[in-house]
Design brief:
3 helices; 58% helix; 0% strand; extended
Length: 101
């Protein structure tokens, strides 16, 4: 199995995420493109959030900061890509208490 290296323009956080995902799953080329889109959108959301944190929620004009919409849309696209890859499925654990308790 060949593990594709994370694109260098991704944040350290997303390069680590890429590494974990590509080690856990055998992804086809198309899926790697979806993973790349997910990572890029996460990074974009973080950039927008940092900008809003620095500049505030409201612009001097009294309008909401446009980066709020960028952040929201980037998170939505990240979650869609993760869902498309099937990474949002958590295997169910045992129900109830551990044995002996």
């Amino acid at each position: 199995m060949t593990i594709s290296k994370a694109p260098s323009h991704l944040s350290v956080e997303m390069r680590k995420f890429w590494s974990v995902v590509t080690k856990e799953y055998e992804l086809e080329v198309e899926a790697l493109l979806t993973l790349r889109a997910a990572c890029e959108n996460w990074d974009r959301a973080q950039q927008a959030r940092e900008l809003v944190t620095k500049e505030g929620l409201v612009m001097p004009s009294g309008k909401r900061h446009p980066a709020l919409d960028i952040e929201r849309q980037a998170y939505v696209l990240f979650l869609r890509a993760v869902r498309a890859l099937g990474l949002d499925i958590v295997q169910p654990g045992p129900v109830g208490r551990p044995p002996g308790r």
